[in-house]
Amino acid sequence: MSPSEPSAAPQPAATRRSLRNKRQTSLVKLIALVAFAGACGALLRLLVGELIPEQGMKFPWTTLAINLSGSGLLGLLTGVAHVRPWMPDWVVPTFGTGLIASYTTFSAVILAVMPSVPGDAYDGLAAVTYVSPGAMEMLTYLFLSVLGCTGAAAAGMTISRALLGQLGAESADLRRRP
Amino acid sequence: MISELSLLIVLGVAVGGAAGAVLRFLLDRYLPGGLLAANVLACLALGYLYGELSWLAETGRVAEDGLLSGPVATTLALGVLGGLSTFATVSLRVAQRWMAGQRLRAIGLWTAHIGLGFGAAALGIALSRLPGLY
């Protein structure tokens, strides 16, 4: 078989790989995209916090809703990227690492479950200050966040793979870092 | 609440969110365990900021025009630290490990993030109580 006529089986993978190599986005471009998307994600979180103010709530529902929705969306995106590997290489860093990961927050969750600090924090920290509830409620919040968000991410991945008709085709690709 | 949003805060959160996201992107890309480092760093800084602000409020010194004035604190907390820390990416990686059958690794990942994040936030609050830092 001549080199110009490769066998049929490895051809799609080779074509996809060469396409991805050709379209490799430069680091500077990626940083610019992540910065812009990160700004949008932070603003989106600010907006949701303003629409559903957490202050005065006995439970940080807003942060929970933000993290649940973000985890589900990231799962959906990763599932799509998994079954569509020829997607441009800037899509996952921009929408996953930039937009969605910046939209969700880990530090606010940890601070919320800290035993309350004497005195009131400054009012400007609207999304991280609220009436501090008891230890049991905070543990519940932590477990709800961890189990719920992991479940949402798994569901998102499964749903997008199922919708694209490739459910169970390959196991989760651990090398792909969103 | 919307009316309380000043242009300064919106700009600050946008710029801060961009900075935090880029820092996390680079940490995650070039440092093993970079995502954990990003989350722990954000917890440490948010703990310090929270402790410092509550200390100021407690002693009746409201930092209206100080280093940690309202817009600055919001920019740091909601912009930089919110952009630096992430919940969705951790959830996703845990879910991927769990679905790949690596149950212990999945549980260990959450344990590391929560344990170290909690410790870092406590350390941040403790640091804010040291005299002479602010």
From TrEMBL, chain A:
Pfam families: CRCB. Residues 1-14 have a biased composition (Low complexity). It catalyses: fluoride(in) = fluoride(out). The keyword Endoplasmic reticulum does not apply. The keyword Transmembrane applies. InterPro entries: FluC. The chain crosses the membrane at residues 26-47, 59-83, 95-118, 138-159. Keywords: Cell membrane, Ion channel, Ion transport, Membrane, Transmembrane, Transmembrane helix, Transport. Its main location: membrane. Residues 1-20 are annotated as: Disordered. It is a multi-pass membrane protein. It is found in: Cell membrane. Fluoride-specific ion channel. Important for reducing fluoride concentration in the cell, thus reducing its toxicity. Belongs to the fluoride channel Fluc/FEX (TC 1.A.43) family. This is Fluoride-specific ion channel FluC. It comes from Nesterenkonia halotolerans.
From TrEMBL, chain B:
Pfam families: CRCB. Na(+) binds at G82, S85. The keyword Ribonucleoprotein does not apply. It is a multi-pass membrane protein. Its main location: membrane. The chain crosses the membrane at residues 6-27, 34-51, 71-95, 107-127. Na(+) is not transported, but it plays an essential structural role and its presence is essential for fluoride channel function. Keywords: Cell membrane, Ion channel, Ion transport, Membrane, Metal-binding, Sodium, Transmembrane, Transmembrane helix, Transport. It comes from the Bacteria. It is found in: Cell membrane. It catalyses: fluoride(in) = fluoride(out). Belongs to the fluoride channel Fluc/FEX (TC 1.A.43) family. Fluoride-specific ion channel. Important for reducing fluoride concentration in the cell, thus reducing its toxicity. This is Fluoride-specific ion channel FluC. It comes from Nesterenkonia halotolerans.
